[in-house]
Write a structure and sequence with these properties.
Order of helices and strands: HHEEHHHHHEEEHHEHEEHEEHEE
Number of helices: 12
Mean pLDDT: 84
Number of strands: 12
Low-confidence stretches: 1-27, 381-389
Structural class: alpha+beta
Strand content: 15-25%
Bound molecules: adenosine-5'-diphosphate
Distance between the termini: 54 Å
Radius of gyration: 29 Å
Largest sheet: 5 strands, antiparallel
């Protein structure tokens, strides 16, 4: 919003407030009111005030943003006309608070904006009273919860996908095992080997899935316990580099480990950190383009050790960046790739359990850099997650 329209808005607010105050005979300091309005305008929540007859007297910038109506357009009109809420016609929350049936109403409902788009919202509605307790109107504050609703739906979908994937791995494993058991002697050695390879691959897939899920449920229940001991990040990274190199070559990718300086030994949970870097490397491989390079770098600052996993892959859509560490969040191209949106949530929890941070920089079509920042000296009193102290 530019300065002129902001001034215009504050003026409008003042006139609205004068109108409300005139109606009640109150005589407060207008500059105090302007300040309060300024606060309401700055809230990342849509706020709409109405008179007892449900005509709008205040409409903050977030309300404009969400409904598509400007404050000028909304002012003086019935709120139901502007919000087109899912409960307006049947169970209007404002009417409920204004009629004093309830002091506050909290509901999830919908609103439909000027362009006919309906979105889910969480709403808090309260009556507005003056100093003498006289009703002067009602107030409705609401937030768009489309993202939460999508996440809830995705969570339900993903849980059924996980169960389905587990079942299909088990069915494949069971089928090949049965063949080997029943007809093992008649099957050529080469074929037997191939069957065993398939069983191993499906077993690994299951193990990975179950691990992610277990880690995730530990996270959810706050039971993620870290076992701290003297840990060499150089050793962990070298081990992972050697483990990942054959798979990377097979996929036509180059994997590099750039850790010229020896890193100090830190107090950490080595197994959990292995999981952090495994998840980051798996993603780097999964989202790489053909012939890309994946680089692991290490750096040391006064306070921290920074390990970065850099890929030249598809990058992350800016719309996804704020959410990629949320559990069950998967990127815009989710249809095309395997995954349950748990890996990065697990990474974040483990890194934060170490008193560290996880950072991401990404550019669509160019690649991503995930940096794990771990403090060299763990402050035990702040991160008391260990169960061996
Ligand atoms: P998933 O198992 O679905 O990959 P993650 O939690 O590991 O779950 O990642 C969440 C989302 O973040 C992915 O669906 C993807 O959109 C994005 N993402 C993670 N790492 C990368 C990467 N290296 N390059 C591009 N996108 C990534």
């Amino acid at each position: 919003m530019n300065a002129t329209s902001k001034m215009k808005k504050i003026k409008l607010m003042e006139s609205m407030d004068k109108e409300t105050l005139d109606a009640t005979g109150d005589n407060k300091d207008i500059s105090d009111l302007t300040f309060k309005k300024f606060i309401i305008d700055s809230l990342p929540v849509a706020v709409v005030a109405v008179r007892p007859d449900l005509k709008i007297t205040s409409f903050n910038p977030w309300a404009e943003e969400m409904t598509g109506y400007s404050a000028e357009e909304a002012m003086g009109r019935y709120c139901g006309e502007i919000l087109q809420g899912g409960m307006c016609k049947t169970d209007c929350p404002l009417r409920t608070v204004i009629n004093r049936q309830k002091p506050i109403v909290r509901v999830e409902s919908t609103i439909t904006n000027k362009y006919g788009e309906t979105m889910p919202v969480s709403m808090n509605t309260a009556g507005l009273f003056d100093n003498d307790g006289k009703l002067i109107g009602g107030l409705e504050a609401f937030q768009d919860i489309s993202y939460l609703k999508t996440l809830e739906r995705e969570k339900a979908n993903l849980i059924s996908m996980i169960a389905h994937d587990m079942k299909s791995s088990l069915v494949i494993m069971g089928g090949f095992l049965l063949r080997l058991l029943n007809k093992g002697a008649d099957i050529a050695e080469e074929k037997q080997h191939k069957y065993l390879e398939i069983i191993k691959k499906e077993g690994n897939k299951l193990e990975f899935l179950v691990n992610d899920f277990l880690e995730f449920s530990r996270l959810q229940t706050g039971k993620l316990k870290l076992n701290f001991s003297a840990t060499s990040l150089d050793e962990i990274l070298l081990e992972l580099f050697e483990a990942y190199q054959p798979g990377s070559i097979q996929r036509g990718l180059k994997l590099e480990l750039k850790n010229e300086n020896v890193l100090p030994i830190i107090e950490a949970d080595a197994d959990r950190l292995r999981r952090v870097f495994t998840n980051l490397l798996d993603n780097a491989l999964k989202f790489s383009k053909e012939k890309g390079t994946i680089t692991i770098t290490t750096q040391e600052t006064d306070q921290d050790i920074i390990v970065s996993v850099i890929d030249e892959g598809i990058g992350i859509d800016p719309r996804d960046v704020p959410y990629i560490f949320d559990s069950f969040h998967r990127g815009q191209d989710k249809g095309k790739r395997e995954g349950y949106g748990l890996g990065l949530a697990v990474v974040k929890a483990i890194v934060e359990g170490h008193g560290g941070r996880i950072l991401v920089e990404s550019e669509l079509d160019k690649g991503s850099v995930f940096s794990v920042v771990l403090p060299k000296d763990r402050k035990k009193e702040i991160y008391p997650l260990s169960n061996n102290e």
